[in-house]
Every structure is written in structure tokens, then in C-alpha cells.
Design a protein that fits this description.
The structure holds two protein chains of two kinds. By secondary structure, chain A is mainly beta. Chain A contains no helices and eleven strands. In chain A, strand 5 and strand 6 (58-60) form a beta hairpin. By secondary structure, chain B is an all-beta fold. Chain B has no helices and ten strands. The chains are: A mainly beta, B mainly beta. Chain A binds chain B through residues 35, 37, 44-47, 50, 59, 61-62, 95, 100, 105-116, and chain B through 1, 32, 34, 36, 38, 42-46, 49-50, 55-56, 87, 89, 91-101.
């Protein structure tokens, strides 16, 4: 069974930093691209960032570019999201999501999602 | 950035009836279109990818169609567990944008 488990959420002040982790099991992690998707309270889904299976290619939404950094450790089956200079509008549940197709980074949907971790940015 | 627009925002349907949800892309996304179901308090679940292919374990009452800029998700006979929010997503572009969602509620 494929499982994705996020952690690292919590309350942080504006301007602060936080690192999210997503540990996976049940897959050959190193063959799949991964992404982070967020959902603000009562709102829709927003793709945030993606990373290739090898980790050498990364993508960011305009809303987070320059502030967030995605990286992965294939030896630990884990993908991370380093979030700096946090703003109130970053408040959301953050989900990690697995690419459906091995190796493919762009032209693939998300077939497995974690349960999400809540980030609240507030003073 | 490809903008995805879903309609209607809310769809009121009686159990056993058919539901038809629409999704429009601001430019062609070929068949790189997915549909997700989200039940409140839960993570999204992949229903359809490639515009018309059901994901593993998805019942046959869910079907997708379309290509280019116009897409449809049809639920042939709504069951109680189908009342949820549905999102379309394009993955033709690396910015994998979502529509704003359609809430399917009990009439």
C-alpha cells in the first residue's frame, strides 16, 4: 500500500520559516516526481512546487518562487518543502502528492496524496 | 499560465440522478486533464487522468470526456458517497493549475 505522510506544520509568525517533510512508503520513491499542493481554508487547490525523480529539476508557482525550496532525499524516501519569508496568505493545508507515471515530471497527474499538514502564519 | 474554469460552482442533484460537470482551459491542454474528488476533511482523490481514463478502483459511473480546451466529468447515477467537491487539473504545462472546483450537493 502506498502511503505519504506529511509533517512539520504548525503556527509561525509572518517572516518566519518552516520545513515540511513527506515520508513515503510502498513505492520505489526514486522513480517518481513529487509535488506539493496547498489549500487555504475554505478555498480550492493550488499547486505549489514540483521536483523530478532525481531531484535535479524543480518547479515553483509564482506565488512562492524565491521563498520556498523543494528538495528530496531518495535514500530516505522523503521530499521536503523549505518555506521562508512566510506570509499570512501562505496559511493552508499542505499536501504532498505523487506523480502517477514513473520518471515523468510534467505530463502526469497525481495519483496518491498525503493527509496534509496545516500551516498557520499569524502573529 | 493556463487558467482552468469550472462550471457550475454548485450542482444540486438528487441521489440516482446524473451529474455533468464542466471544465474549460484558457488554451489547449491536449488530453492532459485530470479530475479529483475531495470529500470535506480528506485529501483529494484521483478519479480520471488523460481526460477519460479512470484511475485504479474508480467506479464505472464516473466518466470523463473532452480534449483541447473543453472537458466534462459525468457521474451517471449519484450515490451518497459522491457528494463532494470536484476539481479539474491540467498537467500539460509544468504549472499544474486547478480549476476552482464544483461542489456537488444533495438536492
Amino acid at each position: 500500500e502506498v502511503q505519504l505522510l506529511e509533517s512539520g506544520g504548525g503556527l509561525v509568525q509572518p517572516g518566519g520559516s518552516l520545513r515540511l517533510s513527506c515520508v513515503t512508503s510502498g513505492i520505489t520513491f526514486s522513480t517518481y516526481a513529487m509535488s506539493w499542493v496547498r489549500q487555504a481554508p475554505g478555498k480550492g487547490l493550488e499547486w505549489v512546487s514540483g521536483i523530478s525523480s532525481s531531484g535535479d529539476t524543480t518547479y515553483y508557482a509564482d506565488s512562492v518562487r524565491g521563498r520556498f525550496s523543494i528538495f528530496r532525499d531518495n535514500s530516505q524516501n522523503t521530499v521536503y518543502l523549505q518555506m521562508n519569508s512566510l506570509r499570512a496568505e501562505d496559511t493552508a493545508v499542505y499536501y504532498c502528492a505523487k506523480a502517477r507515471d514513473a520518471v515523468v515530471v510534467v505530463n502526469t497527474a497525481f495519483d496518491c496524496w498525503g493527509q496534509g499538514t496545516l500551516i498557520t502564519v499569524s502573529s | 499560465e493556463v487558467v482552468m474554469t469550472q462550471s457550475p460552482a454548485t450542482l444540486s442533484v438528487s441521489p440516482g440522478e446524473r451529474a455533468t460537470l464542466s471544465c474549460r482551459a484558457s488554451q489547449s491542454v491536449n488530453s492532459h486533464l485530470a479530475w479529483y474528488q475531495q470529500i470535506p476533511g480528506q485529501a483529494p482523490r484521483l478519479l480520471i487522468f488523460g481526460a477519460s481514463t479512470r484511475a485504479t478502483g474508480i467506479p464505472a459511473r464516473f466518466s470523463g470526456s473532452g480534449s483541447g480546451t473543453e472537458f466534462t466529468l459525468t457521474i451517471s447515477s449519484l450515490q451518497s458517497e459522491d457528494f463532494a467537491v470536484y476539481y479539474c487539473q491540467q498537467y500539460n504545462d509544468w504549472r499544474k493549475t486547478f480549476g476552482q472546483g464544483t461542489k456537488v450537493e444533495i438536492k
